[in-house]
Amino acid sequence: MSDPRQRATASPPPTLGEGCVRRYDPEALGPEDGTEFPGAAELWRRLQEEAGAKPEKPREK
Fold first, then answer.
1. Which of 2, 8, 10, 20 has the maximal Cβ count within 10 Å?
2. Residue 16: what pLDDT?
C-alpha cells in the first residue's frame, strides 16, 4: 500500500485501554502499519546526543 490516499480509507488497527491510556494493540500491528523502523534506536541516540542529554542504554527484549 504505497499510495497514502489508500491508507486514509483503511480502518485503523485495534486499540487497548480507554481515555488517556488508549493505545494501538502492538500484537495487531504489522509492516503495513508502518511499524518497521530498524534505525530507530540509532536515531534516538543521535538526537539525544545533539540535545546534550546522556543517551540511555537500549532496553533489552
1. 10
2. 95
Cell of 29: 500491528
> For 12-57, what is each residue's pLDDT tens digit?
889 999 999 999 998 988 877 776 788 888 998 999 999 886 656 6
As a whole number of angstroms, the distance between CA 44 and CA 32 comes to: 23
What are the two backbone dihedrals, phi and then psi, of residue 44, each rounded to the nearest 5 degrees? -60, -45
Q: List the grid coordinates of 15.
A: 486499540
Q: Which helix (H) or strand (E) holds 24?
A: strand 23-24
Paired sense of beta strands 15-16 and 23-24, if any: antiparallel
Q: Which residue has 491510556 as its cell numbers?
A: 21
